[in-house]
Structure formats: C-alpha cells, structure tokens
Amino acid sequence: MRIVRPITLAAALGLAATSAALAQSHLRIGLGDDPDVLDPSLSRTYTARMVFASVCDKLFDIDARLAIVPQLALAHETSADGLAVTIKLRPGVKFHDGEPFDAEAAKYSLERHLNLKGSFRKPEIGSIDRIDVIDPLTIKLHLKAPFSPLLAQLTDRAGMMVSPKAAEAAGDKFGLKPVCAGPYKLVERVQQDRIVVEKFADYWNKDQVFIDRITYLPIVDSTVRLANLRSGGLDLVERVLATDIKTVRGNPKLKLSKVVSLGWFGLLINTANGPKSDNPLGRDPRVRRAFDLAIDREALNQVVFDGEFVPGNQWVSPQNPYYQAAFPVPKRDIAKARALLKEAGVTTPLTIDFLVSNTPEGRAVAEVVQSMVAEAGFELKLRVTEVATALKQGEDGAFQLYMNAWSGRSDPDGNSVIYQTCGAPQNMARYCDKEIDAWHQEARASTDPAVRKAVYEKIARKFLPEGWILYLYHPQNLIAHSDRLEGYSPVPDGLIRVVGLKLK
User: Fold this and answer.
1) What DSSP state is assigned to residue 44?
2) C-alpha–C-alpha distance, residues 4 and 277, integer Å
3) Residue 360's pLDDT is what?
C-alpha cells in the first residue's frame, strides 16, 4: 500500500534553515493512473489531460455549463458559409522557454497536430485545410467543409499550443518535457512515480495562480488514494469510488465534488482487427445483441457504484440534449439473449477473452458483467492488465472484448467520431461502415442542433445494434480534497483546473 507521508515538523524545521523552498505552497494530487506521453498531439489518456490542464493552455476552454470561453484566444468569427474561422489571439503570452506566443506559433501548433506522425489530434481537426497568418495576433482557419464541432475540439488537446522552438529542438522527445504556455512548467517526471510542475513566472494570468508547486502522484488503488488524502499525504484525489462517498462526506476535513461526466464507459468488441476478431462475438451482430441483453445496467450501477452513476447505452448520457430517447437503455432479457445465440448457431458456453484495465472499479465491473452474461451462455476469461499496456494491446487487436472508457467531450462529435468512423484513431476494432461515416459528416456540417440530433438518430439506429461498442454507463466525476484547498470548481469534463486554487 503506497502512503505518501507528509514532511514531519522536525524535518521541516531542519530543512528551513538551509532552504526557503519549503515556504512555497505545494499541492499534491493523487491520479488514478500514470499518464501516457505528455505530448498534446500524441497523448491519449485521461490523466494526461489532468496534467495538461496545468501545463498547456488551449485556444479555448469550457466552463461549468459547457459554454466555450476564451483562453489563449480572445475572440473568433465564422464566415457565413462556415468555411473560414478567424481567431484573434491574446497578446503578451509567453511559452515556458520565453518565446512569444503569436499567430505564427498558433499556426505551427495546429499544423503539428495535423501533420505529426501518429497524431491523435488529426481526426479531431482534420477539417482544417490550411491556416493563414493575417497579422501577428490573428489566424484564419480555412476548412474543407463546414465543421460545427471545431471550437469544441479546440477546448481540448487539439487547441493546446506548444513552443515551435522547443518542439523543433526536441523532435520525437518533446513529450518528455513539453514546453507550452500554461500556468505551470514541467520540472520533473519519474514514470509510475510522480510528475512535478512549478509556477511559471511569466504566465499571462499569473495574478490568479496562487500555488507554487504541484506534484501529481499516480496511485492506481483508489482506496489507497483516499487513505493518503485522509492522512494528509495528498491534498486532492480524483476518481473517488462511489462506495466511498459516505466516508468522504463523514470526514469534516474533506470536501466532495460531484458532477456527471461527459464521458462513457463501455465494452469494446474486436470486429475486424486481426485474428482475435475471428469469433462469433466479433463476426455476428446477433451475438453482440445477445451479449447486450444479458447485462442489467441498473443492477450493475447499484452493485458497483451504490446507484450513484448513470446507466446508459449511447455515447452521450440520458441527460444530454443529443440523447436518442427512441433507443432507451435496454432491459435485461436472458431468454431473448439465448434465443439470439441459438439463431446465430452458437454452441454455448462461448468463451471470450476479456481484456480489463487494472483499476479497482474496472475489475469490479468486469466481474459483475462476467457473472451476468454467464447466465446467457458467455464464459468470460478476465485478463487484468496495466492501463497503458491494455491500451496498446487494444490498438494491436490483441483482444476479443476490451473494457474501456472515454473521458468525454462537450460536443457529441467528440464522443463518437473518433470511435465509430473508418480508420479513426480510437477505432481499435477497425469497424467500418461508410454510411455511418457519411452521416457523421452530415452532422458536422450543420450548426442547427435539431438537424444534428436527427442525423445522430440515424447513426444510433444502425450503430447501436450493429456496431462494436456496448455503452454501459456514464460516471460521476468524484473528486475529494482537503478543506485546506479553496477555489476548486467542478467542470463536467472532470479536469482539475488549477488557476484560482489556493491552499490555506
């Protein structure tokens, strides 16, 4: 059990005589896993986004109501035909290496997202055809076609700006020490142990940065994270277990933040990525439908999450205005599931290799699903694997069934296209349906919510019964912190925004 112990008083007094460093405020954040590469173009993990929130500012951000607000951009204007977006940039901004942030740097960053080998941002902003520098603080994005989710994409990693000088010098090593324009700069990373950032003296909004140093500590076991928070070894922890809500609320020295996530948690089925896809579950939509009918989402929510999460069957939650009420969360029906398996000619029990990321809630969900589907004739063989390793195996097609989560985006396009379209980076099953691709492009071309929702209805009608993802639920973003921490405000994306935070 990993315990992060606070510095003792005696040690602190001894060190204070030789160093003023201990007078600095120090925020310690417990993460649910170790982030992957800290390069905004190449990163994929949720916890990397947590770290980026302190290191790499974006052109835009979102607020608690999901409204798009300026960050490194000050304003934008979209042409009447939707084919050009002009963005005015904030003056007086510097990167961590002292280089100025200007239109040339913004153009460089966006083109890097588009062109860097292996970039996961390219499909997010691939609608950009070219970028013009209008003046030192203005860029103009020319689009291949109207793309309504563009600004929403620029509120996340695709909108993060990097120092051209540093990126060129570092090459493929940039992710080891990213140089951005955020409130903190990276000073140290030890894999699987810690990430340390320090306040950037020349930050454009430095008057709102009150904490000198932040240390991110990856602690996979949420029980251990909470124990460290209770003992004073940590100041804030993310992904508190739903079953620990009462414990947090019962501690007068702790505070709990709770908001429904933008993301989803689901089961990914390998339908076309290598030999592992060659099985009844991967080949036959009837078998996938049978598997889906064997799951009781509400019971899963009650057993694992004390009823605190939101059962769901789509890429947005039932609370979202884009949710398709015509396709409600399915009720469990074992008899129908068995009938579908029989119709598909499947001899039961059907053994399935089940890749599971090694997190406490992930394991708990996997075991409940394993028990539920067994009643219909599925025998799941759980293969519990470290998070980053499981992700790599998913990419390689080394799975038949893989339980994974998407942390969510404010626009529904960000929750769907990257998984559902042909050749998309998160499409680990290599599922491909040209009709669904065309519908997604149709949804992207409109700024009318009613039009977009009607298009998503067509997608749901086809993808939900035939696609490669079985959506299970939408988490609550549960964050607990010490009462010493002031100014924390939850946003549905779950990211920890550090500007404005104070430690008493």
Assistant:
1) -
2) 43
3) 83
- Is 503 in a helix, a strand, or coil? strand
C-alpha–C-alpha distance, residues 57 and 205, integer Å: 11
Quickly state the pLDDT bin for 5 (edges 50, 70, 90).
low
Helix residue ranges per DSSP H, 232-386: 245-249, 280-283, 285-293, 297-305, 334-343, 360-374
Residues of the chain with CATH 3.40.190.10: 24-55+182-261+477-503
Residue ranges of the chain that CATH labels 3.10.105.10: 264-474
Q: Are strands 401-406 and 502-503 parallel, antiparallel or unpaired?
A: unpaired
Q: How far is CA 202 from CA 1, 25, 109, 392, in A?
A: 39, 18, 20, 38
Q: Residue 404 corresponds to which tokens in the numbers above?
A: 């994974």
CATH homologous superfamily, domain 60-167? Dipeptide-binding Protein; Domain 1 (3.90.76.10)
Give the model confidence (pLDDT) of 283-315 as tens digits.
999 999 999 999 999 999 999 999 999 999 999
Query: CA-to-CA distance for 312 and 417, rounded, in angstroms?
Result: 18
3-state secondary structure (DSSP) of residue 385: strand
At the fourth CATH level, the homologous superfamily of domain 264-474 is: Dipeptide-binding Protein; Domain 3 (3.10.105.10)
DSSP string, 58-110: BSEEE-TT--EEESSEEEEEE-TTSSEEEEEEPTT-B-TTSPBP-HHHHHHHH
Rounded CA separation 442/190 (Å): 45
* pLDDT (tens digit per residue) in 363-422: 999 999 999 999 999 999 999 998 889 999 999 999 999 999 998 999 999 999 999 999
What fold does the segment set 24-55+182-261+477-503 form as a domain? D-Maltodextrin-Binding Protein; domain 2 (3.40.190)
Task: Tell me the CA distances in angstroms from 240 to 11, 221, 255, 502, one per residue in order.
Answer: 31, 10, 12, 21
* Residue 430 backbone class (left: φ over 0; alpha: ψ -120 to 50; beta: rest): left
| Secondary structure of 394-434 in HEC code, one letter for each residue | HHCCCCCEEEEEECCCCCCHHHHHHHHCCCCCCCCCCCCCH
